[in-house]
What does this fold into?
Amino acid sequence: MRSFNFIAFSAIAIVLSPFIGVGQQISPPATNPTSRPSPIENFPVALRPDIQVERYMNVGPKAVRLLVQPGTGVFYYTNFDGKVFRVNTSTGVPVSEQILSADDHGITRLQGAIFAGDHLFLCGNISVNNGKGNKGRMVRFNIKTPSTKPEMTVVFNTVEYGTNATTFDHGWNALEVSPDGKYIYVNTGARTDHGEVQDNKGAYPNARDNALTAKIFRIPADAQNLVLLDDLAKLKEDGLIYAEGIRNAYDIAFDASDNLFAVVNSSDYDHNDDMFWIRQGHHYGFPWVMSGIENPQQYPDWKPNPDTDPFIPRSAHAWAVRYFRNDPEFPKIPAGVKFTTGVQNVGPDANEYRGHSGKIMDGDNTGVTTSTFTPHSSPLGLVFDRQNVLAGDLKGTGFVIRNSLGSRSSMMKPFTEQGRDLLHLQMTYNSLADNYFVKTTRIVDSFNSPTDAVLVGNELYVIEYNSVQGSIWKITLPGSGKSKRKK
It folds into this structure.
């Protein structure tokens, strides 16, 4: 699938205006004959009567992450180009103020951000070797008061490894803080679609995924100046790798019982998009298994052809450029490794799948559970009601947004016209399977290009990406009255 990868988005994004200085406000676009017209956008629609939706504010281009500073309740958001914004509400109207840029933290492709107390952690990627290579980087800033210039500490840099010339290089992105505040979990996505060679036109011969990709790391929150090597044994010895075999978990989050979950963008093959219960030391299958389906490229006699393999969409980029190919050198499954399966979706929504016969099925009709969401739907913005402040059937449950829209996605459309929606997740542990099952229900529809969400009390805020101007939407859910956001 064309997973949510901002490298792809940046290729079509407009050139941004000159640098906006620290504390400078972003004004709406001027309404003159030469200005670029505002994008046409949908207004999200609640699908149940006890939910209200309203626009909270407009945001600038390429918004990626939305976060809240603990204790103050102040919103921050980041964009892909490395800018960090604080939302000032002192006048009663929320206004964006830029506080940091890539020049301040050195991350030129910023994809992860989270607060741990007063410390703002940022994570992303740096192009090296004339754009042919990549380094992951994490920093933290001590953000105490709005008037103080934040102090930066480098948490880690990785060694250089090959990027690639495709849309499938996902990089370092999602962050989550451990419940005790001692660790930062960080996802590093695959640099491939499904484990194929990506050598960036010969710059990194025979390069596939490596020790620094397709994993979730756990980094001490007080770490300084670490250097992460492309050395699997060393990274494990140092206790930095938490889980493996995860193609691209663009969001990770703890539930009310301190279980860590991740939502994953799957490949251009018609795999479902997994949700995983992330446990230390587990391997989740990539690149050999995705959504419980074996990757056929691992078999030396495989000859990919959409005429004989309906799981290959003809519109897929990986098919168009022949990344699906006979690949006798594909790595073997490591000896002794056991794969952990994904959370099983029991419906009634987002549970379409392609069956072994090649036909598209709906789990509601077949009684089959799926791992986990509709293929090519790009789940993002995973959150849980950790404080049990919501009411009724929403209390203590989870939520996720789908970035892709079936009616406008050539690969998702055969499965559903739906998407760009908010899904309600009711998780149930099954002791026999030692895994979770999820009841998935659509509760808000018609977002534009949602990328992240935060839950504050009974208010869920969703931020949207746009090359010109995005939005933050406020979704008021039925609450128990236990918690409200500080103003």
